[in-house]
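Appendix B. Raw example, untouched.
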Amino acid sequence: MSAEAPRSALLFDLDGTLLDTPRAIAEQMSLAVDAVTGTRPSLEDARALIGAPLESMAGSLSGTAPDSPTAHAVSADYLTRYRELIVPKAADLFFPGVRGGLERLARSGFALAVVTSKKHHSAELILEAAGVRELFAAVVGEDDVDHPKPHRDSADAALAALGLADAGPGGAVVGDTAADIGLGAAIGTFTVGVTYGVYSTYQITAAAPDFVAHTFDDVTRTVLLRIGK
């Protein structure tokens, strides 16, 4: 990262934006629900909920409230599966262009942060396993704030951890769902919606991001063009 003070912040979603984890998450969440309730939800139903807090996913897929004993049991089962089956594969799950793009953005002086609906510890685990944790000056999980995305709490927490009052003139929020675009809108910064994650091109376009990126290389180029690099 540049020795100069970062001029702007880039806040990235994690699943479906940096790492190609949505299918694995949907599979393991479906199996976790089956293990607890005896009923296996479809992968399509599980995938559609990615981006929501874990307990909300567990509750919706098990037909219970997010704070119910069943939802807590599903969440615990899923977290075990996540640690044992998904995290070890992290280094192979980057979308094309992500690792090099992040390194280039960091060298250009941006302050990078991950803002995710995952639990903080889960996000730390997979970023460490993927070998990119050191590129991010802050990681904010859904359990770090009172109100998860698209509420601005997550962005405010990330900016505070970066020591910034706002995202800056070249700042952006980058993600693959409406929650990410809503987060950027909540803090009044540029938003980039990616089409290769959970949302289809139509769905992410309907969320009205400032820019639609079809690859992470598109993300990198667009962000750098905005600051004249």
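End of appendix B.
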